[in-house]
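Weekly structure sync, notes
Attendees: PL (lead), two postdocs, one rotation student
Agenda item 3: pending single-chain targets
PL asked that the sequence for the first pending target be pasted directly into the notes so everyone works from the same version. It is reproduced below exactly as submitted, 121 residues in total.
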Amino acid sequence: MKQSRMLVLFALAATLALAVAPVTRVEAAQRKSVATAASAQRKSAALHQFSGTVTALDKGSLTVEKGGAKAKSMVFARSPETKTSGELAKDARVTVWYRDEDGRSVARKVVVKTVSADTAR
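Predicted structure, written out during the meeting:
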């Protein structure tokens, strides 16, 4: 009799565990998707940095190219909030701090690197 009670309790516990398990999996999946979305939002809001040489420049955009083994070219949107230090011109060495907004890279700060007398020699 004692064994049959134990068996009934075990069967009841197993049934409850199986009934709760799918809900737990769904909740875990929902939590994971929310966490992934929040992580992606933080990543896009983060300030990124890119250094190179200006290859094209106009009122609304700035194109910077990085040479070397991992050559890369990036186009940055410029806005009225974009801060620039130094004289921005074609072939100038720059560092651009930018954010990804709506699928485009928007420049927040552009620093023009000046050529010092030691570097020019």
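Discussion points:
- DSSP finds two helices and six strands in the chain.
- The longest helix spans residues 2-45.
Action: rotation student to compare against the earlier draft before next sync.
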